[in-house]
Amino acid sequence: MHRVFPMNSSGKSEVVHDLPPWLRMYKDGTVERLSGYQVCAPGLDSPTGVLSKDVMIVQETGVSARIHRPNAIPQGRKLPLVIYFHGGAYLISSPWDPTYHNSLNKLVAEAKVVLVSVDYRKAPEHPLPVAFDDSWDAVKWAALHVSPGAGLEPWLLDSVDFDKVFLAGDSAGAGIAHQMMIRSRNEKLMMKLAGMILINPYFWGNEPIGAEVTDTLRKALVDKWWAFACPSDKGNDDPFVNPLADGAPPLEHLECAKVLVCVAEKDILRDRGLLFYESLEKSEWKGKAELIDVKGEDHVFHLFNPDCEKATNLFKGLASFMNDQI
């Protein structure tokens, strides 16, 4: 949210980091978030028939979530579970941001799933890998509900098919979903991770490719965001942001049977998403990779205009991916 900042001797606040359009950081360490700070309440969304509520996952760290589910679920029916990680360059936003709340209601209504939208701690106050650790705590919390008496959330206990669990996210959240899927190889879960959905994934790299070569302005912005969120001597080739970099876990280590990558034509991140998809297809991974390429749209357009025809088609594609038999 907006805050009041101390003034220097000239009467002006000193900005030491300016990262439009996300945030500013001042000399005293205070952070002003310029977007993604809005909140909306959970409850029944009449247009979609989706019900939501907020839950605390880890009291000590504040990791929490908003759960979305269809309001009317036939008795005894079990639905796929989606564990969703929001975007915002690891710097802004939350599950209660209206852009996420509204678009995820539409996805849940279309796909007929239960969705846990995770709130993880943000940089710069909490640099990476804090967001990954928080998100893993949320994944483990969901998995507790497989064992009777271990998990206590009735919406998961009553309505979820734990053989159909998907990790999903957009932008930075897609990067988190990928990290969670990699981590699940070494830290086994009781539930089955059936698939992964990467929407406009925030993958990057030191060597420019595709539009990054000519679109130097936007490339410089993404470079700046990443350096701020994750100071690293590997820069843009840190495996946290470049899954194809030297030292990154091999793609065949992905612990799921299918992956959906969604890209948008005008997105500066499009070429990285395509490269990941193509590399996955060529790797020794035994699963099935699918691609949705939306023409004429930019990064996470579906969040800002969830009622448009292309967003509706994207939600239908995501729903089809989750509900098709593997």
From TrEMBL:
UniProt KW keywords: Receptor
Domain Alpha/beta hydrolase fold-3 per the UniProt entry, residue ranges: 82-302
Residue ranges of the TM segments: none
Keyword Glycosyltransferase: no
Record: active site: 171
Alphabetized Pfam families for the sequence: Abhydrolase_3
Family: Belongs to the 'GDXG' lipolytic enzyme family.
Protein name: Gibberellin receptor GID1
